[in-house]
Amino acid sequence: EVQLVESGGGLIQSGGSLRLSCAASGFTVSSTYMSWVRQAPGKGLEWVSVIYSGGSTYYADSVRGRFTISRDNSKNTLFLQMNSLRDDDTAVYYCVRDKTTGSYLFDSWGQGSLVTVSS
Amino acid sequence: AIQLTQSPSSLSASVGDRVTITCRASQDISSGLAWYHQKPGKPPSLLIYSASTLESGVPSRFSGSGSGTDFTLTISSLQPEDFATFYCQQFNTYPITFGQGTRLEIK
């Protein structure tokens, strides 16, 4: 059974840093594309970042230069390092898996990790 | 980035009703559209992809259609568990984008 479990969220001051983790089971993180998708309170969904199976990374314009996606293959874990956090980064962050590699269809989602940025 | 506009933003319906939600893309995305539903406090769940392909395990009362810029999600006979927020997503063009959501409430 595929499972994604996020951790690392919390309350952080504007300008601070936080690292989210997503522990995967039931499949190998490095074998497919993995993304982070966020949802601000009461709002819609926003794709944040992707890491390809080959290791290439891409970011939404809103986070490029501040966020870094990575993975630890030995721990089968995905990360999102978030620096220079702003109020509008407040959201639930979901770790998601591509249904098929490169599809950008998300068939598995974690339960989400809430990040609250306070000025 | 491609913008997706869903309509309506919210609607009220009763169990057994037939409901249609539309999603319009700001440019041609061929059949690169998916639909998700989300219940409060839960992550979204994939319902339909490639405009009309039902995800495994999704009931057949859900169906999708469209191509190019105009798409629809239809629920043929609403069940109590269907009341949720629905999002469309385009995966044809980077960066992927989502619609703003349609909240389906019980009348």
Structural account:
The complex is a heterodimer of chains A (119) and B (107). Chain A is an all-beta fold and 119 residues long. Helix content of chain A is 0%, strand content 53%. Chain A has no helices and eleven strands. In chain A, strands 2, 4, 5, 6, 9, 10 and 11 form a seven-stranded mixed β-sheet that branches. Chain A has a four-stranded antiparallel β-sheet with strand order 1-3-8-7, with no helix packed on it. The mean pLDDT of chain A is 96. Helices cover 0% and strands 50% of the residues of chain B. The mean pLDDT of chain B is 96. Chain B is mostly beta strands and 107 residues long. At the A-B interface, β5 and β10 of A face β5 and β10 of B.
How would you briefly describe this protein structure?
Chain A is mainly beta and 119 residues long. Chain A has strands spanning 3-7, 10-13, 18-25, 34-39, 45-51, 57-59, 67-72, 77-82, 91-98, 106-109, 113-118. In chain A, β5 and β6 form a beta hairpin.
Q: Count of DSSP helices of chain B? A: 0
Q: Could you name the ranges of chain B where pLDDT drops below 50 across 5 or more consecutive residues?
A: none
Order of helices and strands of chain B: EEEEEEEEEEE
State the major sheet of chain A.
7 strands, mixed
Order of helices and strands of chain A: EEEEEEEEEEE
Biggest interface: chains and residue counts? A-B, 18 and 20 residues
Q: What gap, in angstroms, lies between the N and C termini of chain B? A: 36 Å
Categorize the overall geometry of chain A: globular
Gross morphology of chain B is: globular
Tell me roughly what share of residues is in helical segments of chain B: under 10%
Using DSSP, what is the number of strands of chain A? 11
Overall SS class of chain B = mainly beta
Q: Can you give the mean pLDDT of chain B?
A: 96
Tell me the total number of β-strands of chain B.
11
Specify Rg of chain A, calculated over alpha carbons. Answer: 13 Å
Please indicate the percent range of residues of chain B in DSSP E strands (runs of 2 or more). over 45%
Sheet-strand content of chain A, in percent, reads over 45%
Could you state the oligomeric state of the chains shown? Answer: heterodimer
Radius of gyration of chain B: 13 Å
Main sheet overview of chain B = 7 strands, mixed
Unreliable stretches covering 5 or more consecutive residues of chain A: none
